[in-house]
Amino acid sequence: MLDELLELEHQGWKSLCDGTGSEFYGRLMTADGAMVLAHGMVLDRDAAVDSLNDAPPWRTYEIHDERLIPLGDDHAILVYTGRATRDGDEAAFTALMSSVYVRQDGDWRLALYQQTPVPEPSADR
């Protein structure tokens, strides 16, 4: 289960890097799915998919410290630390991320995605 869901996360990040995120998440998310984003917005499936049409692509991404929390055969939460960069001088985005998956008609679907930003260490520490 961990390998399957981690592969979906990688596919999602790759779609956010190559500009196909709206199509990917449009297929992956449940009809009543939601994204809780680091800047404080909660987007339903349609709003999340629409927002990805205009999102600048990520240049790189990394997934670390992944952990699976199984909730039965057809439900699970994947928790990890994600770090991504865009082109230019923008600082890297690092967050604790959780994705709640449910299996529907034999396929995993994303029901909820949530980000909690991890502040970059300050230079004066």
Overview of this structure, please?
The chain is of the alpha+beta class. It has a single domain (2-117), classed as Roll (Nuclear Transport Factor 2, Chain: A). Helices cover 28% and strands 45% of the residues. It has helices spanning 2-18, 21-28, 45-54, and strands spanning 29-36, 42-44, 60-70, 75-85, 93-104, 107-117. Strands 2-1-6-5-4-3 form a six-stranded mixed sheet. A hairpin with a 5-residue loop joins strand 1 (29-36) and strand 2. The protein is globular. The mean pLDDT is 94.
Describe this structure in a few short sentences.
Residues 5-110 form the DUF4440 domain. This is Nuclear transport factor 2 family protein. The chain is 28% helix and 45% strand.
- What class, by secondary structure content? alpha+beta
Number of helices: 3
**Number of separate domains:** 1
* Unreliable stretches: none
Q: Round the Cα radius of gyration to an integer and report it.
A: 15 Å
CATH T-level fold name: Nuclear Transport Factor 2, Chain: A
CATH class: Alpha Beta
Q: Strands of the largest sheet, in order across it? A: 2-1-6-5-4-3
* CATH architectural arrangement: Roll
Give the strand content: 35-45%
Overall pLDDT? 94
Outline, from the CA principal axes? globular
Number of strands: 6
**SSE order, one letter for each helix or strand:** HHEEHEEEE
Domain DUF4440: 5-110
Pfam families: DUF4440 (PF14534)
Organism: Microbacterium helvum
Protein name: Nuclear transport factor 2 family protein
